[in-house]
Amino acid sequence: MSDDIEEIKRKRLLELQKQLIEEERKRKMLEQAELQKQMLLKVILTPKARERLGNIKIVRPELAETLELQLIQLYRAGKIRSQVTDEQLKRILLSIQSRRKEIRIKFK
Prior knowledge:
Layout: H1 2-44, H2 47-59, H3 61-76, H4 86-99
Helix pairs in contact: 1-3, 2-3
């Protein structure tokens, strides 16, 4: 009986170790992807535009993520040939926001 318990404990420990290794691997992959994204954004955006994007990320992280992905897609598609300025970034933001409709519910 105690051998069965020890065997169960050993199997559970192995499962937990595998799970930890897998979680660490995923974390490293996400970290690497984030570093690559930030390097691309440095190439794509002027310093002032990057600063604006950083401010947006603080206030509306989901909007910043959408914007970052859109910029990277445009860059990879060859549609961005020079760095995006702050003014251009503002126009892109307006186009993204105009596509999104907010639903507001007012309680009386």
